[in-house]
Amino acid sequence: MYHPLTIVILTFNEEANIENLLNSLAGVKAPVFVVDSYSTDRTLDILDQRGIPYVQHPFKNYAAQRNWAQSNLPYDGEWVLHLDAGERLTPGMVTWLNDSFDPEVRTVDGYMFARRAIFLGRWIKHGGYHPIYHLRLYRRHLGHCENKVYDQHFVVDGRTARAGKGADLEDGVMSSLRDFTVSHARWAVFEAVESILAEGEPGEVKAKLTGNPIERKRWLKSKVFQRSPLFLRSFLYLFHRYIIKLGFLDGKEGLIFHFLQGFWFRFLVDSTIFEIKQEMKHRPLDVVVQDKYGLDVNVFLNKEPAAV
Prior knowledge:
Blueprint: E1 5-11, H1 18-24, E2 32-36, H2 43-50, E3 54-56, H3 62-71, E4 79-84, E5 87-89, H4 91-100, E6 110-119, E7 122-124, E8 132-139, E9 143-145, E10 154-156, E11 160-162, E12 169-171, H5 177-198, H6 213-224, H7 232-244, H8 251-279, H9 285-293, H10 297-301
Parallel strand pairs: 1-2, 1-4, 2-3, 6-11, 6-12
Antiparallel strand pairs: 4-8, 5-12, 6-7, 6-8, 9-10
């Protein structure tokens, strides 16, 4: 049976998340395809119980896995929707996909969805964190995931539009504060090294102030934030998010989230850049990165991140 839309999910040890995502997909009229990176928990058992087709493929990096999954779909539909295992579709998004999304439309080639960040059980609505748009649905022959180590986006060679109001993705951010801080500590190394190598290489998403929400976000990051002084920019960013963008209205959960994600993480990236550059006064970058983080700089040049 032909389906114009296929939903693609990547998994690796996602037993804590995958059932919630699949439950949220129950009302969507589209097949689901999973690419698993050799999970060792109950992820595959859950997929088998649900009758969800999957294949296993070695993980090199997020972009490579996304693009491989898209190129190896067992379905021939024109449209693809990419989801993370920790996300869920809101009822509004399910309704939009079933009733408002028209796969025959000729004026749009990709759709952006607002993401709801759920942190410690609370929807973070302020601090400039909603709506933040992500391109996830597009004609498969026109789009792909940009090849970056960190902060990747999907790009489409065509016209994009925002999905209807309320057609949001819900993201649990992290299952615990421990997972949140451990993951962000790892990502800080990736972003610091990539920034030193290429001054925050912009990737394939255009940095454009007058562009769509994703292009504006990339412009603010690459043209404003990354050109501001180390350390000072972290304080300014927190002030902007928590005071100017009313992050304080998100309560205690928002205080924790905006401080950790909007200040601590950005300060950690700057501290890592500082640490590496101090070491680079005496030895080259590749030696520093190998000795301090056990990483090969070629991993970043080839866009294949390794665990730290």
